[in-house]
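Mods, move this if it's the wrong board.
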Amino acid sequence: MRRGAFNIEELYFDRGYIFAKIQPLGIFNFRTQKIDISYKITENEVFYVEKIDIRGNVKTKDKVIRRELRIYPQERFSGEKVKKSKQRLENLGFFEEIRFFTEPTSKPNKVNLVVDVKEAQTGYLSFGGGYSSINEFVGFIELRQRNFDYKNFSTFTGAGQDLSLMASFGTLTDQYQLSFTNPWIFGRPISFGFDAYKKSHKREEDIGYGYEQNIKGGALRFMREFTDNLKGGFAYRFERVEIRDIIEIATQELKDEEGRFDYSSGEFILSFDTRDNIFSPSKGIYFVNNFQITGGLFGGDRDFLKYYTRLSFYLPLTEKSVFETKIRIGLADTFKDTEKIPIYKRFFAGGTYTIRGYNERKVGPIDSVTEDPLGGEAMFVTNLEHTCALVDFLKLAVFFDTGNVWKKKSDFLSGGLKSSVGMGLRVKTPIGPISIDYGWPLNTEPGEEGKEGKFHFSISKGF
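Not the wrong board. Structure tokens:
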């Protein structure tokens, strides 16, 4: 009864009846020997929003908060719009606490809506080190402000822009990157951003790199928010990639990848997102599509097309547990006089972020002599994962991974899939989240004779 009354009250609240009263009544029916339930409803008046006050923001500009609101002055009050507004503010990651409440006005059936926030730390200088099964030992230093304002010369904060400067260096990899994003330009939900980066990876066959790889590049990005859930955009990317130090006994197929090449591409992005929280989702759908044209009218040394899509479903099973289904598909093809997809641009699977329980990048085509992964034109990966919060900073995960990579796109989904099962821990720490997984392969890995479980360990800089 109480739950039913609460649901009815919430329904009225969503429609502007802020002070609606619902009284459940239970009367015993002697004829049926059952209890008849009725609800006495006092609707009271429909209320409207007179004005919206923003409080508690010291650094963040009012307009950064107001542009995320989905309820406006002079509108009928809507509990549903208030919830959506709070969700959008939480997804900014700028605030520790967000409260919405109403205050009376001198006018009948009108209230002021108050948005009271407590700001979180959005700028930081972080440094540290760690170990992962992909990059081995690595150190990093990052200067980032997620609420940047290039016009505010006193503190450079408050406009909701994102600026980061990052460097990482390790036994196998080095990476340097500068990124900037302005989520609103021309007073509209159109974002502009750029990236400049330099990456290198030394040859290490144990993690799927039978060659040394050096990349210099950059990108210009535009994204438009069409609705609360639908976004579309375009990016231009230029990269200079050098492949060298290929092992001498490798086949000619791998040796053909050696050299320095320029890649110039345009990327079209379309995403649909209904997740309740982008940082730690418990329900909703995330669907992103990326179509890339490299070469052709964009120039460069190679001409090919790539399509990548990811579809994730999040379902809360209990208050503290979430079941995620994640499906990823990749397809690539060449055009003009390019005969094959460059190895740097192919799809790979196996290891920490795709199919756990297998060696890094070793699910799919391999070199017949060195057994180094060659990647392919087509990829399919599905991950089923159930996470349960044990305490605030610790989650237990169990998973099932399956998928494969195919040399030719025409072979997509042929020849079976490679699968694994396992479990792991997600630990939130001051230096970033730690993921520890143990995966057991259900199939034999290419180039291997038997099956052997593997640990996957990684440290990230965001949770």
